Request: fold
Amino acid sequence: MSKPIVSIKLSPKNYAGLVNLGNRVFVSMTGNLNFPTPSPTLASLQTGITDVTNAIGVWGPKGNRGSHADLVDLRQKALTLSQLLKSEAQYVQNTAQTASGSDYILMGAIIQTSGFQLANAKTPQGVLQMVQNYHQFVTRKINNNQVKLKWKKPLNTTSAGNVKSYKIYRSASSSFSAATVLSTVTKTSFVDTNATGSVQTYSYWIVPVNTAGDGVMSDILTVTLPIAS
Reply:
């Protein structure tokens, strides 16, 4: 389980949302033994909630708005309440972590008694599938004794950052068991050079890598490389 994190996804311009969250936190933390010394104090939080509630009333409903000065006042009070809630959330996070240590289940349970919600836990990527559109890229920008391999990220990649690298395997035969890692790259292309002085036929495979380890190897790509001209 990943570390629980308090989530506040409210814009300072979401006036009603800030008031609702503030009220929920105020009620949940009043008398809550998990959080004996709220910082900011619950009195300060209640003042911030009341200020925004009153300012909303002065600004008025759509179609019967107040003055520009009323709007400026509402925005300033909403910003203050937003900052109070962020500070309270940090207090909740720190207090829950101190009380639970590395017991993340307990930490999450303590945080949720505060009235704040938890950020969505990150879902592990799992083992990556094979890369897509793996092919030899023909271009005049490389020498005749070179080959450029290109591919696209695996089909089941949930985000670009979930692929940490790609292993380039090469073998002088068509057997993957005889292949060795030629290079490890982070881009989706690779250029290999035949510098042996004789014509070589190589087979290549691409293996995506993430935190779960090596993914599924690609199909084989066999290329004959002449000597440099």
Summary: The first strand starts at residue 6 and ends at 7.
